[in-house]
Prior knowledge:
With 318 residues, this protein is an alpha/beta fold. Helix content is 33%, strand content 15%. The protein is built from 11 helices and 12 strands. The strands form 2 sheets. The chain has a 7-stranded parallel sheet.
Amino acid sequence: MKKVLLLTADADNGLGTAIRDAVRGEAEVVRLPERTTGALRAELPTCDVVVGDWSGDLPLGKEEAELGRNVLLVQQPGAGTNFIDAEAWRAAGVPVANTPGANANSVAEWAVLAAGVLCRSMFWAHNEVTDGRWPRESILTRDCRDLAQRRVGVVGVGSIGRRCAELFAAFGCDVYVTARSRPRDTVAATFVSLDELLPLADVLVLAVPLTESTRGLINSHRVAQLPTGAIVVNVARGAVVDDAALARALRSRHVGGAALDVFDVEPLPISSPLRGFDSTLLSPHVAGGSAGARASIYSMTAQNVASALRSQTIRWTL
Length: 318
């Protein structure tokens, strides 16, 4: 019987069930006896399909690709593939695929809702009332504006960035987008360069993949280009933002708030300079974790796994 190796850390959360249902007894879905690189490498030569991990604890690099030359498919259950050396696997003759767009609406909704919460100081007000205060007057001293009054700049025009543009526009925001190149099709926003976008962005939304060109993209120089009181929303990857530069801007109030679902180091260290502000919303990398998004990811993953085992067309390859 063929073998599908499932690397996700949690017990069967629905992904394993979806794969088993799709392969209909044609393959056994197995997990590692222990979550170590050694255990992973021992399993790879006998696997037919490898379904990747979300945590990054079990990266699939060059050494793993060499051992997995007989693998039919490396499938990532999600959009992010920064823990997979796709080039090394392709060189070994193994396709790598992900599930693009499966969680786009979920992540975009999180970005819009988080921005709205910070624009209206809802999180701060909740904490004040929870602590026994009634900040009906003092909230007026904060920069409390309707979301519709904010100009929004979205960095990245993939499925998440596009959906963010649509949802912010639905609130009445003026929306600007930027990317390395102008999209060929229509986006519900005005396309500008990054240097043009930053001074306009009362809300800056980051929705780009982590690459060498985007690592540290929002540094101290670019933070300084934002309007005073701007809100930074990061649903990309933590390393896209210089944490220290953002923390300094929050401390000086040049940046009025930050909604962060991703961090350079996860879990977020206790010593992180991003902790301790009353104008931040810190989330444990769950923006794309809605039930609807998970169902789409499981379905797309299971579909590709079954296709690989049956020598059918594999979709969404990198």
